[in-house]
Design goal:
Structural class: mainly alpha
CATH topology: Proton glutamate symport protein
Number of domains: 1
Distance between the termini: 44 Å
Order of helices and strands: HHHHHHHHHHHHHHHHHHH
Oligomer: single chain
Largest sheet: none
Radius of gyration: 21 Å
Strand content: under 5%
Shape: globular
Helix content: over 70%
Bound molecules: aspartic acid
Number of strands: 0
CATH class: Mainly Alpha
Number of helices: 19
Length: about 425
Amino acid sequence: MAVKGKSHWPILAGLGAGVVLGLAARSGLPAATLEWLVSSVAQPLGQVFLRIVFMAVVPLVPSALVLGVAEIGDVGKVGRVGLRTLLYTLVFSGAAVLLGVGLTNLVRPGEGLPEAARAELQARFSGGAAVGTAVSNAGKAKGTAQALTDLIPKNPLAEAVNAFEGGLIPLMVFSLALGAALAAMDDETTKPLKDLLRALQGAMLKIIGFAMTLAPVGVAGLVFSVTATAGLDVVGMLAKYVALVLGALTLHAVVVYGGALKFFARRDPVEFLKGSSGVLMTAFATSSSSATLPLTLQAAREELKIPRAVGDFVLTVGATANQNGTALYEGVTVLFLAQFFGVHLSLGQQVTVVLYSVMAGVGTAGVPGGSLPLIVVVLQNIGVPGEAIGIILGVDRVLDMSRTVVNVAGDMVIAACVGAAEEPAT
Ligand code: ASP
């Protein structure tokens, strides 16, 4: 979601206004007036904003994923470098998500809301339908073999129509297949389709950009509804959630990146950090892997002395296709919101979230807020209302800046590891 650099302050102000006004209204207004304010003013304001985001999701997700896979596949054509890149991407993203999901299960930042407040929030956000029904129904109705078979769609268009009711994952599987098919064909034949998908992806990000101009008001409305209903508890839970994401990102960078640098790239992690500090600061400031790419390429060559051919490939592809920080963040966020809404996720469902988050790391555009549309859809698919994303949107900017740092660092670490394998240290 293209949240431009300058626009995070108004959104943060929207969050602050929502919290303060929600708490004030909760303690100062009669119940009937409060109910009217929430259901007739605050909720519709939030809804308008979210619906504009939602309408871009179905075209956006397949186009981004097809392009992501096609690009990794293109690198696959250059053989070893491509394969190693793919392997590192999958292992790093998998480790990131498992770390995030594991810590969220341990810390449980979304739990602790009084039952009555939770029930009220569930009813508000899901238009009265029981949250989690989709999950429990799906769990009851299908055996594992059937559920796995159903991941392969008979009709991708029908899945697209039902994307918000469980069709997204099969649609993503189709997108993976299409991306792989494009990568296996010659460039001249596939170029028109890739150009079309690139234009479609760009246009959808634009629509989301339009929505973001309404974000301060939308976020204020959504947060007002939540705090007016659930009180101060929500603020504490949000603080825990932010701390958890930041802690998990740091742990991933230190353990996984530090370990990979030491053992696979045979480099000193501290030196590496020094050489890439300018790039990482730019990633933090812009919240965009793609905007940081020119600097990343330059630093890889000049500061980090990564072989040019390897660096150019790995970093260009990685800017969109390797997003470990995003994958980690998606896993934590989906679980946090499920906890918040009291949706119990079985082990199988958590595995789905993990797989989904790894895919999201590949399919997310390297722009500010690029991962938010994907969260909406996975939430819907596991039975949490997509509107729940409004709860975290106000604090997303700082998390976006931080996960982008981890995304870009991951690209450079992979480039260094693949580079070391190609040109053993002298
Ligand atoms: N802002 C991230 C990036 O550009 C993507 C995201 O997680 O929203 O790397």
